[in-house]
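Hi, here's the filled form for the chain we discussed.

Project: internal
Contact: R.S.
Residues: 455
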Amino acid sequence: MDLTQFSGLGDVNLHLSNVADYLSVTESEYSPPPIPVDIPTFKELENLENPNFGKEWRKYFHLSDEFVFINHGALGCTLKESLGLAQAYERYMDTQPLRAVDREMVPLLCHVKRKMAEYIKCDATDVFLTENCSAGINTILRSLEFGEGDAILTLSLGYGAVAFAVDNVCKKSGARHHVLQVDLPVRDENEMVDVVRNGLFDGIKLAIFDHIPSNASFILPIKQLIDICKERDILVLIDGAHSLGQLDINVSSYGADFYVTNCHKWFCNTRGSAIAYVRKELQERIKPLVVSWGYNRGFMAEFGWSGTQYYSQYVSLLSTLNFWRTVGGDVIRSYCSHTVKQAARLCCEKWKVEPVCPEHMIGSLVIVRLPDALNDSNWKSEGEKRYMLADYLYFMHKIEVPIRQIGETLYVRISCHIYNQMSDFEKLSSAVLDICENRDSLVNYNSKFNQIPTA
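And the returned structure, exactly as it came back:
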């Protein structure tokens, strides 16, 4: 089918009528729409024999040198060229807004969906673009029907905002939110499988698992968890907020009913970008949070347009994809995972603590238990200590790293991306030991509302 016949159509409505054609046509028959801005190709990074990741790669980001930044897992960090492309597209859009929106936008967004679906290994007709994992998960939760006697299953390691979203849906529907407790450390994947298998019961309609939990930060065996749930006809939603960029995602192979992943975290795209997969048989049940011009035209059209905005964060994915394909996803993931494992070993050894999981369950993100001196219950409450420690590391040592509390225990969560190197984690290890040896300085430190102590 020659899709160029639709090029330049003067109304979003007309394009939405053809979304299925844009997305379902085979690659050999597909003609990409004209791209109105230059897409970075990263020619200088082709065929690198030794990327030599570390501090030198900060030049591809806008990161300040003021801080040791080992908290990529919080908000990600956008590639300079991708942010530049987003801004360039916004400027282009304002040269003739109606041309950009009415005549060009929908085919361009479909092109992005095709490229992203190919990258995460699923069909372009099964995905929609959204702002972040929270938006995607809320979309799915609010589309499914629950009632009295139904339950939604999550793990205690799950993301707090997702737990709130589940609570909200349960409150309105009369369903029950059941949380399975996961204790640390985790010895292997079988332990996680046993927790879920032993925790299932009649009435569970939906199970939500993190591919890599934000707080505990190890890779869950999602294929096994999905299979266990499928034996009992339980729908499964995978929260992959931290997976794209840490893992080589193969959505089609998992068997999940829903899979949502951020593009702005580990993938380093412009913020406000995520992609969600919905199994074809369930697409009639899933509706966008914003009802717009695709209404009643099927899944692809209904998620093809949510109203006037720049959509530049999605256009910038064309640059981000080029970066990952040029440098090599396997090369990037290997460096980040190897380095963060080395960092975890260093911290565990220096702080005399045990790892929270086996190394093969670690991607580019890991938590390490803080030393006993900072987990002593005799001073301060755990919650107050958590923020006090994070602020002290931030203000006094110029280290950006989060402190996590799981149960009654405090951990530090460390991230590694291509701009990090072992010296970053050596500074963290030394800073924590310094705090342990001079705990009085921390006890007397006024952390509340980020106030810097006066001399």
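Let me know if anything looks off before we file it.
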